[in-house]
Each structure stands twice: as C-alpha cells, then as structure tokens.
C-alpha cells in the first residue's frame, strides 16, 4: 500500500476481519465468500463494480506479485522494484503483439543507447537486464520471456542470500514488464 499511495486511480485498503468476539467485518468476508483459510486475501475492484471483484490467486504472497497482479488486471502503470519507467515503455514497444523484427531491433538499439547514457549504478544494472532480455528475445522469440521467467522462479526457490533474492526478484519484475506488455491487449 505504501508503494502505491502515489498511484492515481488506485485505492488500497486493508480490511481486518475478526473471527472472534464482535466479529468485525465478518459481513464482508461472507459477502465475498472469504473463509479464515483464505487469509490473507486480495480482491481487486474495477470501475466501482463491488459485485464481481477479481481475486488474487497467487500462492506466493508478496508485494511485487500483488503489484504485478494489479498492473496486469487493472491496466494501471505501476513501477515495480528494479524497473525503470523509460525502459518499461521500451519493453512495451518491443513486446507488442504485432511488432516486426525490424522495429524490435530499433527498440533494442534505442535501449542500448539509453542504457549507455545512464549514470546511476542501480539504473545501469536494471537497464542491462532490459537490454539482455531484448537481445535474447530477438534470438529466440517471445518464448524466451516465459522460459526465462520460469528459470528465475526456479532459482528463487533455492537457498539464496537476501541480496541475491532481491536481485532475482528485480529480474523477474523486469521480465514481467515484457510479458504484461505482450498480453495487455488480450486481457484489457
């Protein structure tokens, strides 16, 4: 919620439900068929529709996964950890459904130039990931996004230092920028 507080057109609320004593907010749990076993539960309400919320069905309950869920389902621009706004825009152009190989190459070259111009070290690292993903996607096609996503998710299940987990989660967030861009027209 703190990360998204400045996102226009998005309201984040935490509703506690007590299953003892006065059972505060139990009426909401009943209305949206949320049982104690479902906690924590995330529901996304679009355009004021209170009758048909979209449920977050992720097993890996973390901030980045929830942000990706909201970004994908609501079509709201949310900058995930390690993502760069300008490079997310390039990822969207690169991953458009009917983009030609020539246009992808131009976007790739533009990303390389913009990456070289960066001065902040963390931004350089993130930009290098965008560029590498574009390079591999040019070689292997769009199937690379899903295979790389799966590879990184598998790595995240292993024993890793907190720093390495954060680095891999950042890479996963950047990969999601390409996947969401490619799927956006189908889902929204």
Question: How would you describe what is shown here?
Answer:
The protein is elongated. It has two domains: 74 residues, no CATH class; 100 residues, Endoplasmic reticulum protein erp29. 56% of the residues lie in helices and 2% in strands. With 188 residues, the protein is mostly helical. It has a two-stranded antiparallel ribbon with strand order 1-2. It comes from Medioppia subpectinata.
Could you report the average pLDDT, rounded to the nearest whole number? 87
Q: Secondary-structure element sequence?
A: HEEHHHHHH
CATH-scheme architecture of the largest domain: Up-down Bundle
The name of the CATH topology of the largest domain is: Endoplasmic reticulum protein erp29
Helix-residue proportion: 55-70%
Q: What's the gyration radius in Å?
A: 19 Å
Low-confidence stretches: 184-188
CATH superfamily of the largest domain: Endoplasmic reticulum resident protein 29, C-terminal domain
Tell me what portion of residues adopts beta-strand conformation.
under 5%
CATH class descriptor of the largest domain? Mainly Alpha
Q: Give the strand tally.
A: 2
Secondary structure layout:
Elements: H1 26-31, E1 43-44, E2 54-55, H2 63-74, H3 85-95, H4 101-117, H5 121-140, H6 143-156, H7 162-187
Antiparallel strand pairs: 1-2
Keywords:
2 domains; two-stranded antiparallel sheet; 7 helices; 2% strand; mainly alpha
Provide a brief overview of the structure.
This protein is an all-alpha fold and 188 residues long.
